[in-house]
Recover the amino acids of this structure.
């Protein structure tokens, strides 16, 4: 109620006290919330203060906020930032190095030799920076990484302002990063301690795969995971031959072995999972294990097909990842959603399986669940972190719009993404990176091109004439 | 040898006479020729005069040409324009209208009712224009279309300056375009006569499919095809159920029926072809029939998988098409190449099948062969038409470059395409359309949105929670 001054004049400053100053207001044509009802809001305002979403309301009612920054994007959809649930970010320097080759030749004759020779702290720093630039430009606000020299990864993530879950690498042979299990663990945990104060960075253990990590090593990790509350991020059942080999050599399937080691739990993030039978799926469901589907990498390396529909039917949480750029060859979650939706239809023979809405959940809220961060990110809801992007749909390629989520998944391209915020900070401002220098990154990529070229596979000539 | 004047001074004008004036010189970082050897030329100049490529030579040797227009694109690859071998261009107004639905429901409850009600000459004009804009912006310089109101299609193609093979529609029931076979033929041929002088437009007969066109109709078309030298463009064996239905109802497979009708020939363009056995493939090879693979449409409608590798092994020419935007939902040949390459690896289980080079041939020279235009288009070679596009690869997403064809297919996006020429005419100039007005197209799309929305399928809710 207005307060009258003694002279009867209404005290103007009183009203000002009711207007709340906030850091940012975004007025958008659509807000795709990815809440429990998949609500799409039209002509709403997203109110952000600091790193949090504090309100979502019709634009006409937003007058109670006084934003320091007002962003008017009347042709745009605002979308929860993508969560890329499986990356090897540094490998972006190797994209296109050795394409169209059998998996063994790709890995043993090109990727691994190049990594052995070149993948040092500089490679990780520059490669990860290049990848983060690509991710920000394509709406990814959080990624779940697995690689070496994670001190560099954390440093670059921290400077770029993106969110990441960084895997502490574990593998049963020496690399340039560490000589043995003790060192893999101690160096990894030291980086974790070092970045303890960065709210945008979390850590997992990332054993490479069941076939490169022994029972003993897994048993060493387990109490540390429990003590520190860490999850585990691992490639499992990537191909049928991985499973067959394990049965032949160890008499047990990798997943069953992890079960025996009591590692199946909601803290386990299993990647690829193309070779799964009904028992495997039952086990995953029983223990609430997360699965990360990487359709483009699985196609490119002919690894098999992750049975996404069966996993969902069993109630398992399935997120989406691109894998590293050497086997994709991009880290574009818009494209990955599209491939996931199309592939599931083709493989199942059902055109109504895995809708645009489904894959959008996989790329956002399901990724957040996978990382145990779904109370903070993965949807646009009051109280959550302001990790969002804006995409301009008023373009030849995306008009008319009948269902904005269909348009986003099936018709839009990453180049239409104009703005990206992570924890309320604008990392892409009208297509310009704010925390990374594109020309510096391109210059570094050029330098690496020279060093990496000797590992390039000569022209993969056509078989089609 | 220089000619000396009587006074001993070298005659300058002599040299000038040896410098040839041409309309256009493009200096590019790479020229991807798609010639018989898949040659990639570095730092070469493409010399164009009028509508033709007249020379390709190292930039340092290009001083013998004096171009009216010099285009210096030192970060770009110049590529033969894509040939989209199967489209229903006008349907771009329907993209995203009814996604994630079973094929029958998609077609019978949404697409066909919308078309019956709305697909008139205005729809075709505006939809085709929108599609051509999308095609030019994504490097397509020629498309093979099948739809109604082809007078409008030809008009829009002619104004836009793109190249097209336009299908004269044939179907055994009346539509808004024609009431019976006679009218389908006569109206179609009248349009052909009308655009006789346009060198960029050719025509085929386009019977919709074996199940909607009778033997009698096919028999009527055949002598006309022979007389006028027309090819035939038709959907065949799109799904297994099409084949099963035909066997049940007519006692014969559609392809065998076309063979009985003596229609299998190098003039037959068969689209989709997901349900093929060894005998079918043998027949196709024997008669040099062309096949158009539409991987994204086949995935989206769960139609099955075209056995591309087996077709190539049998020596059959396979081109690439997007199909209409209602079942894709874009007409982006870069994306379609990528999907074709990834899908073939996934389905065959061989990571070295269908390389980037292979799919680039499918999207260019094989498309040209399909249309009988391979002496004119489909590769960058002296004497061919100047149908090319330029793509800027100096971008975060496409650096470093080890094999430029891999980068093009697996990492690049259509938004990187900066310039497009058809028959030497620049249709896209530094990302700007020169013959179409983008704002007018967007305004028309908005108007159609209002009319088409009643046929929209309500939100395709997620099944994933």
């Amino acid at each position: 109620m207005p307060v009258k001054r003694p002279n009867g004049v209404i005290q103007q400053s009183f009203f000002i006290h009711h207007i709340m100053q906030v850091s940012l207001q975004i007025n958008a044509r659509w807000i795709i919330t990815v809440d429990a009802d998949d609500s799409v809001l039209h002509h709403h305002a997203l109110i952000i203060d600091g790193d949090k979403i504090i309100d979502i309301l019709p634009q006409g009612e937003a007058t109670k906020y006084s934003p320091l920054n007002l962003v008017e994007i009347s042709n745009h959809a605002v979308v929860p930032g993508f969560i890329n649930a499986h990356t090897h970010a540094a490998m972006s320097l190797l994209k296109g190095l050795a394409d169209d080759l059998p998996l063994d030749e790709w890995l043993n004759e090109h990727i691994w030799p190049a990594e052995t020779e070149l993948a040092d702290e500089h490679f990780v720093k520059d490669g990860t920076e290049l990848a983060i630039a690509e991710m920000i430009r394509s709406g990814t606000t959080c990624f779940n990484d697995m690689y070496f020299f994670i001190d560099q990864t954390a440093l670059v993530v921290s400077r770029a302002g993106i969110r990441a879950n960084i895997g502490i690498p574990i593998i049963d042979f020496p690399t340039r990063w560490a000589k043995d299990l003790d060192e893999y663990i101690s160096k990894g945990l030291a980086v974790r301690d070092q970045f303890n104060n960065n709210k945008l960075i979390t850590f997992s253990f990332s054993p490479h795969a069941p076939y490169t990590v022994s029972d003993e090593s897994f048993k060493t990790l387990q109490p540390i995971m429990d003590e520190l509350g860490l999850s585990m991020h691992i490639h499992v059942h990537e191909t049928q031959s991985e499973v067959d080999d394990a049965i032949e050599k160890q008499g047990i399937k990798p997943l069953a072995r992890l079960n025996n080691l009591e590692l199946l739990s909601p803290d386990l993030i299993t990647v690829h999972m193309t070779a799964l039978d009904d028992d495997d799926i039952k086990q995953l469901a029983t223990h609430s294990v997360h699965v990360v589907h990487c359709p483009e990498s699985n196609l490119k390396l002919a690894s098999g097909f992750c049975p996404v529909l069966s996993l969902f039917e069993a109630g398992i949480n399935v997120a989406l990842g691109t894998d590293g750029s050497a086997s994709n060859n991009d880290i574009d979650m818009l494209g990955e959603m599209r491939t996931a939706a199309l592939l599931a239809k083709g493989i199942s023979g059902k055109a109504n399986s895995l809708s645009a809405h489904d894959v959008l959940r996989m790329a956002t809220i399901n990724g957040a669940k996978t990382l145990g961060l779904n109370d903070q990110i993965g949807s646009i809801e009051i109280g959550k972190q302001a990790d969002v992007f804006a995409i301009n749909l008023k373009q030849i390629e995306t008009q008319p719009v009948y269902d904005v989520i269909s348009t986003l998944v099936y018709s839009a391209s990453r180049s239409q993404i104009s703005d990206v915020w992570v924890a309320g900070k604008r990392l892409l401002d009208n297509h310009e990176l704010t925390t990374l220098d594109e020309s510096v990154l391109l210059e570094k990529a050029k330098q690496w091109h020279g060093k990496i070229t000797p590992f390039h596979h000569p022209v993969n000539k056509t078989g089609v004439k």
Observations:
- Residues 121-137 of chain A form the longest helix (17 residues).
- The longest strand of chain A covers residues 65-80.
